C-alpha cells in the first residue's frame, strides 16, 4: 500500500509528496496539534467517495502543478464530470478503476494541516469489494459514510455502517453528498438523516455527525457553503481537524505479542515485538499469558537506545530478569491484567472469499504473531446487515457476516474484540491456497464443563495393535459414485479376514442409515458427514484395527483433516479413478439418471464438485482392470508400508 507524506511549506496545508515511510508519517503526525487521525470513506457505489478525497486535496493545495496537468488530461480521457476536472481520478489510480469510473482497491493517502495529520482510506462501494472496505475499516478510527442525496440510504450504506460498528469505529460522519442535485434541499437532507439515524440506533456508535455537501463543487467540504443557509453545522474539514479520538490503546491493559526471540550470544536474550496496547516500564512485572510464568522488565531496547517506558505501537525489544520459556506468538501482559486463554470461542466472521465457509472445515488461524490450526465448529447465524436480525444458515458466503464458534489446536491468548481490537482480531487462511478467507472478531470464550476430562486407558493403542500382530491405519477409498470403491474395498476386507487380520469396513451408505441419518447432501452436511466418520475411524485405529473407509468424500479439506487427525503414516488415501462417463454408464443405483434430470440436487459430478486427490498414496485407474486385481494392489501397498505381513 502506498502512503502519502507531506513536504514542508508555509502554506495552511503543507504540501503533498509520495512516501511509504510510516515512521516519517508518525513523526509528522506528532508535530500536528491534534495528532494523527486515520479515517475512511465508504458507502454505496457512485456516492462520491473518491471525489470527496480529491476535493480535500485540491482545496488544500496539496497537488503539484504536474499532477494538476495530468489530472486535466485524464479528466478528458476518463472523466465523468463533463468539462470539469474529475477529482476522483486523483485517487482512482488503477486503469480498471478509471475505465469503469469506480474504486476497486483500497487507496490510502496521507496529508496534514497545521492542526492535524491524516491517513485516509478510500474504499470501494461495490458489494463484491466489501472485503476491501473491511480492510480499510480495520485500521480506521473514524468513518465518513457517504450517501447520494438523490438515492438516500441504501442496503450497501447499511452494510458499511454495520461493518464499521463491528470493527470498533465509534465516530461517524454521515456525508449527504450531491446535495446540489436536489437543489440543496433541507427536507431531503433531514429525511436521509432520519433514515440513517433510525438504523444506526442499533449500532454501537458514540455519535453521528451529518453534513450536507457537494464534493464536486466543494460545498461544506473545506469551507462552509453559501448555498445552504439552513445548515449551521461545521464543514467537513473543520470537524476532522477538531474531533477528539480517545487514545483507548494507551489506557487498555498491557499486551505484547512476541514476534521474535533474539539470542545473539549467551549473555543476551531479548523478545522483540510491537506494544499492542497499554504501557510498560522498566521494573514492571510481566506474565506469559499462556503459561503463567512471570518475571520483571530489565531493559526496553530500541535502535535509538534504551527506554524507561514503552507504549502502543512502539517497536521494542524487552529483556527480563529471569530466563523463562517464551517463544514467538506468546503474549506478555501484566500479572494483574491477564488476557483470556482458551481453545474455543465465539466470534464474528466476515467472509472474504468466493468459496463458502462451512462448519467442520479446518483453516489456519493467524492471531497476533501466532499461526495454528483452527476448526470452524458451528455457524450459529448470519447477520442480516440491512435489518440487523439473525438468519439461520449452514454456510457463510462472500461478504456475509456470520456469528460462529471456533476451536483451536491449542489454547491461545486473546481479549474480546470490543475490549481490545489488537488482541481480539484474527484472520483465517485456506490451508491449501494460503488465501485469506475471513476476518474475525472474538466475542467471548466458550467455557467447557469443568467435569469433562479425557479418560486415560491402562491399555495403550500400541499394545492393542501388538496383540493383533498388525499396525492400525485408516485406508480411505475415495472416488465418484459408481467408481467401484465399495466393490474393491469389500474384496480387500475379505482378503484381510482370510489372512487373520482384524479390519472393519465403514461404508457411506451404512453410516447414513445410523449415525449420520440426520444429514442430507448439501455441502455443509457432506462436511459434517466426513467429520463424524473420521472420529469413528480414529477410534477404530485406537483399538488396533485396520479401518477401511469407503466414501465419495468430494472435498480435499475433509480428507486432509482426517489425515492430520491420525498422524503421519496412519492415513492411506486410495483414489479410485473412474471417468465420469463410465460412472454414468454403470449407474448401479440409478442416481446419475435422476441427478441429470434434476430430481436429485447436490450430486457429486453433476451439480456438486469432486476435488481429485493431488498426491494419494495409491492411485487406481479402473479402465481395463478388474476389481480383484485392484484389490491385490491395495494389499501389496499395505504390505510395502509395513502395515501387513501376509
Descriptive report:
The chain is built from 18 helices and 31 strands. By secondary structure, the chain is α+β, with helices and mostly antiparallel strands. The protein folds into four domains: 4-242, 3-Layer(aba) Sandwich (Rossmann fold), CATH 3.40.50; 249-334, Translation factors (Elongation Factor Tu (Ef-tu), domain 3, Beta Barrel), CATH 2.40.30.10; 340-445, Elongation Factor Tu (Ef-tu), domain 3; 468-640, P-loop containing nucleotide triphosphate hydrolases (Rossmann fold). The radius of gyration is 30 Å and the shape is flat.
Helices, strands, pairings?
Elements: E1 4-5, E2 17-18, H1 22-31, E3 36-43, H2 49-59, H3 65-78, H4 95-100, E4 107-112, E5 117-122, H5 130-137, E6 142-148, H6 155-166, E7 171-177, H7 186-200, E8 207-212, H8 236-242, H9 248-251, E9 255-257, E10 260-265, E11 268-274, E12 280-281, E13 285-288, E14 294-301, E15 309-310, E16 315-320, E17 331-334, E18 340-351, E19 357-358, E20 362-367, E21 370-383, E22 390-391, E23 395-396, E24 401-414, H10 421-424, E25 425-429, E26 436-445, H11 461-468, E27 473-478, H12 485-498, E28 503-507, H13 508-513, H14 523-542, E29 546-550, H15 556-566, E30 571-577, H16 580-586, H17 591-596, E31 618-621, H18 627-640
Amino acid at each position: 500500500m502506498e502512503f502519502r507524506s507531506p513536504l514542508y511549506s508555509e502554506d495552511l496545508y503543507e504540501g503533498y509528496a509520495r512516501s511509504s515511510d510510516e515512521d516519517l508519517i508518525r513523526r509528522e503526525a506528532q508535530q500536528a496539534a491534534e495528532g494523527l487521525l486515520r479515517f475512511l470513506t465508504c458507502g454505496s457505489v457512485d456516492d462520491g467517495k473518491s471525489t470527496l478525497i480529491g476535493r480535500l486535496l485540491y482545496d488544500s493545495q496539496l497537488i503539484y502543478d504536474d499532477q494538476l496537468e495530468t489530472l486535466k488530461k485524464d479528466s478528458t480521457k476518463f472523466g465523468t464530470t463533463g468539462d470539469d476536472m474529475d477529482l476522483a481520478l486523483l485517487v482512482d489510480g488503477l486503469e480498471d478503476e478509471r475505465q469503469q469510473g469506480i474504486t476497486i482497491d483500497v487507496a490510502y493517502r496521507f496529508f496534514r494541516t497545521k492542526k492535524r495529520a491524516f491517513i485516509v482510506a478510500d474504499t470501494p462501494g461495490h458489494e463484491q469489494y466489501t472485503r476491501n472496505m473491511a480492510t480499510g475499516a480495520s485500521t480506521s478510527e473514524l468513518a465518513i459514510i457517504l450517501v447520494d442525496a438523490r438515492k438516500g440510504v441504501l442496503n450497501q450504506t447499511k452494510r458499511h455502517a454495520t461493518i464499521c460498528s463491528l470493527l470498533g469505529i465509534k465516530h461517524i460522519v454521515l456525508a449527504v453528498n450531491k446535495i446540489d442535485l436536489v437543489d440543496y434541499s433541507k427536507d431531503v437532507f433531514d429525511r436521509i438523516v432520519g433514515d440513517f439515524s433510525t438504523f444506526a440506533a442499533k449500532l454501537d456508535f458514540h455519535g453521528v455527525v451529518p453534513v450536507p455537501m457537494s464534493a464536486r463543487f466543494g460545498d461544506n467540504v473545506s469551507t462552509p457553503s453559501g448555498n445552504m443557509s439552513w445548515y449551521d453545522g461545521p464543514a467537513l474539514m473543520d470537524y476532522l481537524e477538531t474531533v477528539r479520538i480517545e487514545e483507548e490503546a494507551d489506557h487498555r491493559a498491557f499486551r505484547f505479542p512476541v514476534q521474535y526471540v533474539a539470542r545473539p550470544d549467551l549473555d543476551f536474550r531479548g523478545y522483540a515485538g510491537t506494544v499492542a496496547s497499554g504501557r510498560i516500564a522498566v521494573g514492571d512485572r510481566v506474565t506469559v499469558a499462556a503459561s503463567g510464568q512471570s518475571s520483571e522488565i530489565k531493559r526496553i531496547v530500541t535502535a535509538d537506545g534504551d527506554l524507561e517506558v514503552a507504549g502502543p505501537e512502539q517497536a521494542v525489544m524487552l529483556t527480563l530478569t529471569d530466563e523463562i520459556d517464551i517463544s514467538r506468538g506468546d503474549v506478555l501482559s501484566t500479572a494483574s491484567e491477564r488476557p483470556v486463554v482458551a481453545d474455543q470461542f465465539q466470534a464474528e466472521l466476515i467472509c472474504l472469499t468466493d468459496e463458502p465457509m462451512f462448519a467442520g472445515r479446518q483453516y489456519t488461524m493467524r492471531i497476533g504473531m501466532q499461526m495454528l490450526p483452527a476448526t470452524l465448529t458451528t455457524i450459529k447465524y448470519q447477520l442480516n446487515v440491512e435489518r440487523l436480525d439473525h438468519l439461520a444458515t449452514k454456510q457463510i458466503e462472500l461478504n456475509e457476516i456470520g456469528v460462529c464458534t471456533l476451536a483451536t489446536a491449542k489454547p491461545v491468548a486473546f481479549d474480546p474484540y470490543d475490549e481490545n481490537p489488537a488482541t481480539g482480531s484474527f484472520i483465517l487462511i485456506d490451508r491449501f491456497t494460503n488465501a485469506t478467507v475471513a476476518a474475525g472478531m472474538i466475542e467471548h470464550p466458550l467455557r467447557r464443563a469443568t467435569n469433562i476430562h479425557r479418560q486415560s486407558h491402562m491399555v495403550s493403542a500400541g499394545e492393542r495393535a501388538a496383540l493383533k500382530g498388525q499396525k492400525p491405519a485408516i485406508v480411505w477409498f475415495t472416488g465418484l459414485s459408481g467408481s467401484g470403491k465399495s466393490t474393491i474395498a469389500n474384496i480387500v476386507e475379505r482378503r484381510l479376514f482370510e489372512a487373520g487380520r482384524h479390519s472393519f469396513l465403514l461404508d457411506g451408505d451404512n453410516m447414513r442409515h445410523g449415525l449420520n441419518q440426520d444429514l442430507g447432501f448439501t455441502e455443509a452436511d457432506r462436511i459434517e458427514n466426513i467429520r463424524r466418520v473420521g472420529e469413528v475411524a480414529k477410534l477404530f485405529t485406537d483399538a488396533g484395527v485396520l479401518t477401511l473407509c469407503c466414501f465419495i468424500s468430494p472435498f480435499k479439506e475433509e480428507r486432509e483433516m482426517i489425515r492430520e487427525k491420525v498422524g503421519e503414516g496412519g492415513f492411506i488415501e486410495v483414489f479410485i479413478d473412474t471417468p465420469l462417463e463410465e460412472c454414468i454408464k454403470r449407474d448401479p443405483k440409478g442416481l446419475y439418471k435422476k441427478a441429470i434430470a434434476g430430481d436429485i440436487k447436490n450430486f457429486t459430478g453433476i451439480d456438486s464438485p469432486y476435488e481429485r486427490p493431488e498426491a494419494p498414496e495409491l492411485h487406481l485407474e479402473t479402465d481395463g482392470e478388474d476389481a480383484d486385481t485392484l484389490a491385490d494392489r491395495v494389499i501389496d501397498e499395505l504390505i510395502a508400508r509395513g502395515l501387513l505381513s501376509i
